[in-house]
Amino acid sequence: NLTKRLEQVATYVPQGAIVADIGSDHAYLPVYLKQKGQIEAAIAGEVVKGPYESAVSSVKEAGLTKDIEVRLGDGLQVIEAKDGVSCVTICGMGGELIASILEAGKKGGHITGQERLVLQANVAEHLVRKWLVANNYQIIAEEILEDNHRIYEIIVAEQVAEAVVYSELEIQHGVFLTKEKPALARAKWLGLIQKNQYVLDQLAKSSTPQVEKMKKVQQEMDMLKGLL
Ligand code: SAM
To answer: Which Gene Ontology molecular-function terms are recorded (predicted)?
Structure first.
């Protein structure tokens, strides 16, 4: 059984896609997608031997070795143009790692820009948006969800000819999320406000003046308060 988190990720994978799931661990996502008949084929990439072997076993147990190829390698290096990948999923990692995987993949020519990207960062989603924006991607969907008492975000993007301009607020806190303001996003922002307030209180108590830092935290907090 797939987690609610990955089940939601799966809804953004187009019907008939050829998927590259990077950091696939047990290859649960590609196996689920293929069993549902949602995708044509998949490549499951893993950089660590243990998870790579788990992925190999899962695919074998599911009887899907013809449809899902498990490859050992760093990030997007496991794919090349001739694989015809139409959708890349990178889930369950920090935003910084996801952005660095995308950057290395772009530089190495492992992604063409034609692929739909379905990204689920556990933290630092803004770094994912920053990379997307800098590389002419349009964010076409966002979702926030709770699974097993944790809040997760999903970002879906496709490359466009002309760069889309996003505000700092949208990059930091979401393009759709800041418009639609779902309850979970509000809860997350409220938590951030409390965290920032705590940081401010600590800074105010500091024996050395922290004017610049306090200004920055205050600005961030004002941005968040404006969202609620
Ligand atoms: N994608 C699955 C999910 O969302 O449930 C697994 C997430 S798991 C927390 C992260 C996986 O990414 C680990 O199995 C790790 O080995 C793998 N990973 C980390 N860095 C990677 C990289 N540069 N290239 C490929 N896989 C990587």
So the answer is: tRNA (adenine(22)-N1)-methyltransferase activity
pLDDT tens-digit map of 112-135: 999 999 999 999 999 999 999 999
Domain residue limits, the chain: 4-165, 184-227
Is 83 buried (19+), middle (13-18) or exposed (0-12) by CB count in 10 A?
middle
CA of 109 to the centre of ligand 1 (A): 21
Contact 90, 119 (CB under 8 A): yes
Whether 51 lines ligand 1, by a CB cut-off of 6 Å, is yes
Q: Which atom of ligand 1 is nearest to the CA of 48?
A: 16
pTM of the model: 0.96
* pLDDT tens digits, 176-195: 999 999 999 999 999 999 99
Is 43 a pocket residue for ligand 1 (Cβ < 6 Å)? no
CATH class of 4-165: alpha beta
Give rounded-to-5 percent helix, strand, coil for the chain.
Answer: 45, 25, 30
**ipTM, interface predicted TM-score of the complex:** 0.99
